[in-house]
Amino acid sequence: MPSSIFSNGSLEKIEEGIEYLEKHGVKIQPLSKEIVLDEEECIKCGACTAVCNSNALRMNPDTANLVFDRDRCIVCELCVPACPMRIIKVMF
Q: CB–CB of 34/75 below 8 Å?
């Protein structure tokens, strides 16, 4: 399985990883959950970006605002406890 699946979060790499697992007898059960955050309450500390392996969360260097790219998010949930303001949640 390509090791870059967690570093780039691309849909193509995720699909390759799923195919690899299924080929080796691992049953995949998709979960319907997503990360949601309250950007208005964000204090722009960047703690969530430090733990986001897929780069779905990053700071805009021009505005210092948090940018969340849902398409890159792998819902690993590492950002949830990293946020000191607790504005990041997992929705099922």
A: yes
Q: Is 41 helix (H, G, I), strand (E, B) or coil?
A: helix
User: CB within 8 A of 18, min separation 6: which ones?
Assistant: 28
Q: Per CATH, the architecture of 31-91 is what?
A: 2-Layer Sandwich (3.30)
pLDDT tens string 11-49:
788 889 889 999 999 988 776 889 999 989 999 999 999
Domain ranges for the chain: 1-29, 31-91
Residue 3 pLDDT greater than 70, yes or no? no
Q: Three-class SS of residue 26? A: coil
pTM over 0.70: no
